[in-house]
Design a protein that fits this description.
The protein is built from 8 helices and 8 strands, in the order H-H-E-E-H-E-H-E-H-E-E-H-E-H-E-H. The longest helix has 20 residues. Helix 1 crosses helix 8 and helix 3 crosses helix 4. The strands form 2 sheets. A 6-stranded parallel beta sheet has the order 3-8-7-4-5-6, sandwiched between helices. A two-stranded antiparallel sheet has the order 1-2. The chain is an alpha/beta fold and 293 residues long. Bound molecules: zinc ion (ZN). The site of zinc ion has 7 residues, from loops.
């Protein structure tokens, strides 16, 4: 990671410190294996993946796009992030766990079919959704994205695929610029943009008005969360004002929904969150709630 870049290793160190606390001692934690890169083809064309891999430097840092850089370890890291998500889908489907949270970086929701961008190389939640469908025969997977940025990559991948419902709250205007209410895919994309300085009240309203009804109607067989914590009031990259209680609230609501439709099956994948205390506080609320399944 280039010096001063917000998407940095300290983010995961902050979560490691959090999970050392007494109340997480009962949390089952695992170190992931790398997955086979062929799973990436579930969401990205082979040619694009080859070009991406060819861009990984042998030393130093290579620029992938304006704010996305690759180091020699980037490819291996992305294989591990997706290995974790895929293994979690397997464990959830085998009923070894009710739910799982992937506390890894880099994030994935900005990665479009053929464009790596916004700190993202491949779309982890998208690959996990298609993996659940292909390997476990699930028909409908819903992805809920409460990262402060729009999940343009996830929308790009699924906008023609009615077997996946994508719902996103995000600040608008903000990077990457997409996510208007009018972007609806084949009726399977629900964008609920929030305005700068909005907080938990507006978030809850957007979820109640636009997202929960669509999820109920869709009746997902699995729920995947793009869990970003950069809507936190202290985050330096955006100007929403979520507090820990808001992350607790949405987690509880999504768990109720998953209980009604899919035996509580939830895979949650870390996306953004760049204020270390805000990130740790949000993840604390989210994972504490998930542990009460
Ligand atoms: Zn974000």
């Amino acid at each position: 990671v280039p010096q001063g870049h917000p998407e940095r290793p300290d983010r995961i160190r902050a979560l490691e410190t959090l999970f050392k606390e007494e109340r997480f001692h009962t949390l089952s934690r695992k170190t992931p294996e790398a997955c086979d890169a062929s799973w990436f083809k579930l969401c990205h064309p082979e040619q694009h993946l080859e070009a991406l891999q060819a861009n990984i430097p042998h030393s130093g840092i290579a620029v992938v796009d304006g704010d996305t850089s690759a180091s020699p370890k980037s490819w291996e890291t992305v294989l591990h992030v997706n290995g974790a998500a895929i293994a979690a889908v397997d464990e959830i489907m085998a009923q070894q766990v009710h739910n799982a949270f992937i506390a890894m970086r880099p994030p994935g929701h900005h990665a479009e079919k053929t464009t790596a961008m916004g700190f993202c190389f491949v779309n982890t939640v998208g690959i996990a959704a298609r993996y659940a469908q292909q390997s476990h025969g699930l028909e409908r997977v819903a992805i809920v994205d409460f990262d402060v940025h729009h999940g343009n990559g996830t929308q790009d991948i699924f906008q023609d695929d009615p077997s996946v419902l994508f719902c996103s709250t995000h600040q608008m205007p903000l990077y990457p610029g997409t996510g208007a209410k009018t972007e609806t895919g084949v009726g399977n994309i629900i964008n609920a943009p929030l305005s700068p300085n909005d907080g938990g009240e507006q978030f809850k309203e957007a979820m109640r008005d636009r997202v929960f009804g669509a999820l109920e109607e869709f009746r997902p067989d699995m729920l995947i969360i793009s869990a970003g914590f950069d809507a936190h009031k202290n985050d330096p990259l955006a100007s929403l004002n979520f507090v820990e209680e808001d992350f607790d609230w949405i987690t509880g609501k999504l768990m109720d929904l998953a209980d009604r439709h899919c035996e509580g099956r939830i895979l949650s994948v870390l996306e953004g969150g760049y204020d270390l205390e805000g990130l740790a506080g949000g993840v604390d609320a989210h994972v504490t709630r998930l542990m009460n399944a």
